[in-house]
Amino acid sequence: MGDKAEIGVKVKKKSSLCRKGVIGLYVCAGLSLICVIYMLYYSITYVSSYYASYGMSISEGIKDVIQYVASSTGNYLGFAILFFAAAVILKKVDALSPKPEVAQQQIELENTFKEQLTGAVPKEEALETEEEPQQDAELETPEGEMEAEALEEAAGEPETQEEGDSVELQEGEKKES
Questions:
Q1: Where are the extended beta strands (E) located within 96-140?
Q2: Which stretches are transmembrane (predicted)?
Q3: Of the four listed, 60, 107, 116, 130, which is most buried by Cβ atoms within 10 Å?
């Protein structure tokens, strides 16, 4: 039972780390957008003061204005988009990972499935129940039955057959007794 609790704790820690990472990425995206707004304002005021100092209008050099504003804000805008996209991706990956309750249910289902396939009792239940004698377990298999018959013959207790019973040989032939 300690393994299940351990797995649940690991999943919970991973989930909380993902949530903190998503929040951190959203914060970084927000800060980058604030930088974009600041740089946009600063660039426009700088260009307007530059053109005003030379007595020109901004419309005369609009290509230079657009190039200057785009180059000063582009990096921050690119990082804001990347941070936002990373946060969305991490959030979706976190949604795909199993939650502690789901992980524990999945472990229980896997154990039940293994139990049904092998017919064996899980380790935890085996420790709680009393151990059965090995001979009984061996007799349940065909090999165990053959060993039991060999032991009976060695002990001098021959098997009795009634008249009319037939014995199968390995080749599939039948022999009357």
A1: none
A2: 21-45, 65-90
A3: 107
